[in-house]
Amino acid sequence: MANPKTVLCPRCKKKVQYHFDPVNHRKQLLLTIFTLGMWLPMWLAVAFSPTKLCNECGGPLWADT
Ligand SMILES: [Zn+2]
Q1: Where are the domains of the chain?
Q2: Distance between CA atoms of 24 and 6, rounded to whole angstroms?
Q3: How far does residue 6's CA lie from ligand 1's centre (Å)?
Q4: Which of 25, 39, 47, 49 makes an SS bond possible with 32, Cβ 3.0 to 4.6 Å?
Q5: How close is the Cα of 18 to the center of ligand 1, in Å?
Q6: Mean pLDDT, range 11-34, rounded to an integer
């Protein structure tokens, strides 16, 4: 049975473990203010779907396949 905690990294070309990128809410708030609220949907998007980061190269993992 495959380990569900690993995902294929396109950079490392192998299955790697990953961690989630913590959302910088202060930066998101500043961006939302700076764009007069236009950034708000992006803030919600990153808050509800945090980016997976490869433990080996630190790159983002967009696909689970
Ligand atoms: Zn990697």
Answers
A1: 6-61
A2: 25
A3: 11
A4: 39
A5: 9
A6: 93
